[in-house]
Write a structure and sequence with these properties.
alpha+beta, GMP Synthetase, Chain A, domain 3, four-stranded mixed β-sheet, 11 helices, 11 strands
C-alpha cells in the first residue's frame, strides 16, 4: 500500500471567492454579448477587492454590483469592502489570431478520467467535492459555521491506485469558536456519511489542527484568481497544464481545451474499457489546429485520429461544448469536473 493526499478548498476560501468573482464578471459579459473577450483577475484582501485584466465587449457592466453580489451570496459582508475597478481592453494583437479561429493562448492542457466512481473521477476527489457542497449548506443553516475552509484526505492506495482506506481526514473550517464540540461533530458526521456511501473507513480526523479558526476570509488571507489550479482539476491525481480557468472566456484554450481534454478522456475510457486515461492537448496562440494530442492510458499510448485533431480546433470545441453561455460562476464553486450540468461531463 502507498499513501497519497489530495485537497479541496471550500467556496468561501479567499482564492475561490476570487475565482467566482472573475467568472461572475465573465458570465455577465456573455449574458449581454456572447462574443465577449474576457481575461479578468481578482485580488482580495483586508477590506479591498481589486479587479484587473482585459475585456472587449458590448456589455454594460456594473463591476461593484457583481462583486458585492458574490460576497453576499457566499456569506461575507459586502459593505465592508472597497471595490477597485482596473479593467482595460484586450490587446488587438491577440485578436488577429483569435478572430480567424485560432487559439487565444499557447500552452498545454490535460484531461483525466478513471473508473473509480460514476463521475469517472478519483474517489477521494469526489468525497471532497461532496464535502465542500455540504459545508456551504452548513453555513446557510447554522450561524456557527463561517464561509472559509479547506479539507484534505491522506489515503491508503493499492497497486492500481484505488483508495482502500483514509488514514487522516483533515478539515480546517472557520467558525465562531463558541461551540466546537457541536460544530466538530456535525462536520465529522457529514464526512463519515459521505465515506460510508463508498465503504471507506476513516482512521483519524484532524479538525482545525492549530486549535482555532475564527479569523478567515480576506481578513485572514489574501485571495487571487487562478491560485487553486490543482483543486480545480484533478487534485494532483493527474498532470496540470499550468493555466488557470476562471475569468477566461472560451477562446482561451487554457479553459476550453482542458474541458475538451476531459471529455476525450471520458470517451476513451469507455471506448477502450480503461482503468484510467489522461489526454494532453497543446496549442500555439493564433493557430487553430492543436500542435499535438497525446493520449496515455492504463493500456499504454493511444494514437489520436485526424478527426480528433479537427474536433480540437478552438471554434469546434466552443460549438461542441456550447461554451458561449453564462455557466462559469457555477464551475468555480465546487469543481469544474464531475457535474453533469456541464456539457463536457454529459
Amino acid at each position: 500500500m502507498k499513501l497519497f493526499s489530495n485537497e479541496i478548498v471550500f467556496r468561501g476560501h479567499p482564492d475561490k471567492v476570487c475565482d467566482q468573482i472573475s467568472d461572475a464578471i465573465l458570465d455577465e459579459c456573455i449574458k449581454q454579448d456572447k462574443y465577449s473577450r474576457v481575461a479578468v483577475e481578482t485580488v482580495g484582501g483586508k477590506g479591498k477587492i481589486f479587479i484587473t485584466g482585459e475585456i472587449t465587449t458590448k456589455a454594460k457592466l456594473n463591476i461593484e454590483k457583481i462583486v458585492k453580489g458574490i460576497l453576499d451570496e457566499i456569506g461575507y459582508d459586502s459593505s465592508a469592502y472597497e471595490i477597485i475597478d482596473n479593467i482595460g481592453r484586450q490587446s488587438s494583437d491577440i485578436a488577429l489570431g483569435v478572430d480567424i479561429g485560432g487559439a487565444g493562448d499557447q500552452g498545454m492542457m490535460f484531461g483525466y478520467a478513471c473508473d473509480d466512481t460514476e463521475e469517472l473521477l478519483p474517489l477521494a476527489q469526489v468525497i471532497l467535492q461532496k464535502l465542500s457542497k455540504e459545508y456551504f449548506a452548513l453555513t446557510k443553516r447554522y450561524n456557527d459555521f463561517l464561509p472559509d475552509g479547506k479539507a484534505q484526505i491522506t489515503g491508503y492506495y493499492d497497486d492500481n491506485f484505488k483508495l482502500i482506506k483514509i488514514k487522516t481526514f483533515t478539515i480546517s473550517y472557520q467558525n465562531l469558536e463558541v461551540n466546537r464540540e457541536f460544530t466538530d461533530k456535525i462536520i465529522k458526521d457529514i464526512a463519515i456519511d459521505i465515506c460510508n456511501e463508498y465503504g471507506i473507513e476513516i482512521e483519524e480526523f484532524l479538525i482545525n489542527p492549530t486549535g482555532k479558526f475564527l479569523i478567515g476570509g480576506f481578513e485572514g488571507d489574501a485571495g487571487l484568481t487562478g491560485r487553486k489550479i490543482v483543486v480545480d482539476t484533478y487534485h494532483s491525481f493527474a498532470n496540470v497544464g499550468g493555466g488557470a480557468f476562471s475569468g477566461k472566456d472560451c477562446t482561451k484554450v487554457d479553459r476550453s481545451g482542458a474541458y475538451k481534454a476531459r471529455q476525450i478522456a471520458k470517451r476513451m475510457l469507455r471506448q477502450h474499457n480503461l482503468r484510467w486515461c489522461e489526454v494532453q492537448l497543446s496549442y500555439a496562440i493564433g493557430k487553430a489546429e492543436p500542435l499535438a494530442i497525446y493520449i496515455d492510458s492504463s493500456i499504454g499510448n493511444i494514437k489520436p485520429s485526424e478527426e480528433l485533431y479537427r474536433e480540437c480546433k478552438p471554434l469546434n470545441i466552443i460549438h461542441d461544448l456550447d461554451l458561449r453561455k453564462p455557466i462559469y460562476k457555477h464551475t468555480a464553486m465546487f469543481g469544474h469536473f464531475g457535474n453533469n450540468d456541464f456539457e463536457w461531463e454529459k
